[in-house]
Specification:
By secondary structure, the chain is α/β, with parallel strands linked by helices. It has two domains: 8-69, no CATH class; 81-381, Glycoside hydrolase/deacetylase (TIM Barrel, Alpha-Beta Barrel), CATH 3.20.20.370. Helix content is 38%, strand content 12%. The strands form four sheets. Strands 1, 2, 3, 8 and 11 form a five-stranded parallel sheet that branches. It is globular and about 55 Å long. Zinc ion binds at residues 93, 95, 132, 159, 192-193.
């Protein structure tokens, strides 16, 4: 029976095409997923992995499917290493992380085989009010724990040099401290909220008429970031260009980050101090993270052969009252059982760049598209920070 409440295996009995190559099967799955009612996807009746058993177009016609109903499923043509079907990583902004709430999350991820990117604040400064709170690497126990994470294969990235606005001198000291602690300079960075030394941040994230729209929407409050402005107190653009390879900018709702930003990692000639930018998928809190990583979204990421880089704060609700969030646990268990490539963000971005064979330089129209989609997403979400 075909319809709400039916058995999901109803879609599998049409024909058997076990001998088809994976690519052909994937095309068939795309076709089928486009034909099936959205409610089936949402209620979890459809498991594309099951559909991968195979269907062909003739059988779909025979079953009464109408091709005009086909919805376009976005696909990427990346072939992932080790025969993996998709890639997944996380950049964890360190806000609020302590020795109480951090280790349980990372032990869980490590046990499941995930190796992601944890960011740090290498130094603690006396001036300025922390915009969020959380432990810095000035705490020896915390620095020791982060170092052990690196030994296990986690990437350690930068989330600014400290938890508040830093001066150029503090940037110099912070980068040196990072080197001293981890044996190398950070390869990857994401700006921390409210820091005036953020690089190409606030209204500088967007260009042209979209900058005007952004300023109107934020009531002109998100201007005057200094990281890229030589001569200002917060200038560190030259250090960014010298030491850091990847910086995060746009965050989108779609689990398939690569489908939203197929150019990543990309260089933007209008923002020369950043070698390459990357995008991410929305998940700042445990609720948002779980929403993006829902079962059906995981299935779609796999079908599309995509790449997901989650933006999150693992200190924001993932571990509370002595236990991990149960929905998070179940979603990550499910994800870990799928044929994904679970590597740190820089490893994933390095692979994409090597796959392409060169550093991608984004065009004005491609950038316009990214900016427009990001602004629309932020407006829908109710914020533009
Ligand atoms: Zn932050």
């Amino acid at each position: 029976m075909w319809g709400a409440g039916c058995d999901r295996y109803a879609v599998l009995i049409i024909c058997d095409v076990d001998d088809l190559e994976f690519k052909t099967r994937r095309r068939a799955v795309r076709l089928l997923m486009g034909l099936l009612p959205t409610c089936w996807h949402e209620c979890g009746l459809i498991r594309p992995a099951d559909i991968l058993l195979g269907l062909d177009t003739r059988s779909l016609y025979a079953a009464g499917c109408r091709v005009q109903d086909l919805k376009k499923i976005k696909t990427n043509s990346i072939i992932w290493p080790e025969g993996r079907r998709f890639a997944f990583s996380v950049f964890d902004d360190t806000d609020g992380t302590t020795m109480q709430n951090g280790p349980p999350v990372y032990e869980f991820l490590s046990d499941l085989g995930f190796r992601i990117t944890k960011s740090v604040w290498p130094i603690q400064v006396k001036t300025g009010r922390p915009s969020m709170g959380g432990t810095t690497c000035a705490d020896p126990a915390y620095a020791g724990w982060v170092n052990r994470l690196q030994e296990q294969g986690f990437e350690i990235g930068l989330h600014s040099v400290t938890d508040t606005t830093a001066s150029r001198e503090e940037w110099l000291a912070g980068l040196d401290k990072f080197y001293e602690l981890f044996g190398h300079y950070p390869m990857i960075h994401a700006n921390h909220t409210g820091c005036r030394d953020s690089i190409y941040w606030g209204d500088q994230r967007v260009s042209g008429v979209r900058r005007c729209a952004y300023n109107l929407l934020t009531k002109f409050r998100n201007r005057d970031f200094q990281g890229h402005l030589p001569g200002t107190v917060g200038y560190w653009g030259d250090l960014c260009a010298r030491h850091i390879k990847y910086v995060r900018n746009f965050v989108y709702a779609d689990i398939n980050t690569l489908s939203e930003c197929p150019y990543m990692p990309y260089h933007d000639p209008d923002r020369p101090f950043v070698r390459s930018w990357f995008a991410s998928s929305e998940g700042p809190s445990v609720e948002a993270f779980n929403r993006t990583l829902s079962e059906i979204n995981q299935e779609r990421l796999e079908i599309e052969g995509g790449a997901c880089i989650m933006y999150t704060h693992f200190a924001n609700g993932f571990y509370e009252n002595g236990k991990l969030n149960s929905r998070f646990v179940s979603l990550m268990h499910r994800l870990s059982s799928r044929p994904g490539w679970f590597v740190p963000v820089s490893t994933l971005l390095d692979y994409l760049e090597a796959y392409r064979g060169h550093r991608y330089v984004i065009t004005t129209s491609e950038r316009r598209r990214l900016e427009r989609r990001w602004l629309m997403h932020k407006i829908r979400l109710g914020g533009t920070t």
